[in-house]
Design goal:
By secondary structure, the chain is α+β, with helices and mostly antiparallel strands. The chain has four helices and three strands; from the N terminus they run ααβααββ. The chain is about 50% helix and about 15% strand. The protein has a three-stranded antiparallel beta sheet with strand order 1-3-2. α1 runs antiparallel to α2 and α3 packs across α4.
Length: about 110
């Protein structure tokens, strides 16, 4: 990656994804939603690899299928991960497209 941290090629994207995966794996995911949040991020890391960057498109229904849980569980997990700054909603879903999300490592964990 360049000095600004901008992803400019697939190799940069894979480095960014690997860095984020290491940060996710370093956390002890406690509490009632900890395991669910870990599943959520793990599924999103796979989507990020397929998309070629930390930004990816996915619907709540698709996430529920990937995680093997209810849509309401995904929505609650998304809210926790957004509050903890692991997940950023880039663009809400429209009739034609799923929501666009971006993964990030929170500054203060």
């Amino acid at each position: 990656m360049g000095t600004s941290g901008t992803i400019v090629c697939r190799a940069d994207a894979m480095v960014a994804i690997a860095r984020l995966r290491a940060a996710v794996e370093a956390v002890v995911w406690r509490g009632p939603g900890g395991g669910t949040d870990l599943k959520n991020l793990t599924a999103r890391l796979q989507l990020a690899e397929q998309a070629g960057g930390l930004e990816h498109e996915v619907s709540v229904r698709q996430m529920a299928e990937l995680m093997g849980c209810a849509r309401s569980t995904v929505e609650a997990s998304n809210a926790r991960l957004r509050a903890a700054r692991w997940l950023l909603l880039v663009a809400a879903c429209t009739g034609e497209h799923s929501s666009t999300w971006s993964l990030r490592i929170p500054r203060c964990r």
